[in-house]
Amino acid sequence: MMKCREATQKMSEELERPLTLGEQVELSVHLAVCPPCRNFRRQAAFLRESMRAYARHPEADERDPSQ
Amino acid sequence: MANPDTPVGNTSGAAEALNDPQFVEDMRRRMLRFATLQLSDPHLAEDAVQEAFIGALRGSGSFAGRAAYRSWVFGILRHKIADQLRARTRYATVLVEDAEPDPTPDGLFEQDGHWTDDAAPADWGDPHASLRDAQFWRVFEACLDHLPGQQARVFMMREFVELESPEICSAVGISTSNLNVSLHRARLRLRNCLQQHWFGEEAAPP
Question: Hey, which CATH number is domain B96-206, 3.40.50.2020, 1.10.10.60, 1.10.10.10, 1.10.238.10?
Fold first, then answer.
């Protein structure tokens, strides 16, 4: 059975390539019983979103002490 | 060069910003640090930063303040770096010896592969509200700064410069599995850092 360490590795790779059917099944089975890994999956997606926001939006880079 | 970051606003932040040597120097320093990390060549980095400033001067725009201006110039730099790295992939045919990826931080997992109590990802609720919080971005940036060199480099290439995985592998000269290991570890570190310093119940600034 897949452990958290390996599950996070698959969830990271999921952002790089489509997982195989076998990997998807194994991951789903793990996620069904592991709330922290379910949080990890949402947060990994959020990291990608925030990096893109960081790259694009001026308000993401507002550091002027006068404001 | 395509410039997707159309300036908005109605005050001329550019002229005002460029008249402040300290602001310009601070911006230049940060751009140079980023370009040097990405290109691994101080001279090419210097050139790229120079060109980004020149490109910014050519584009006449008005900016709603300094941050908008800085973000726009940084966007130009980002595109120059993407072009440079992509150009490298054309003649990078020999795969250099894979370096050992920077390590996973200690204390995230037990021996048996389960999360440790301290490191288990907590529920962050809806984290998107933080994207509008200036303090969040200070923490975010500090966490990025704490990534080890190679992890920071490939993670920024992937998520900030937005190159595809195969482009990064040939620009850096590493295998796909090496890249995936580095990205995985970078995500573990960054997530853990944000939980410790922002989203966690006992979060404290880094």
Answer: 1.10.10.10
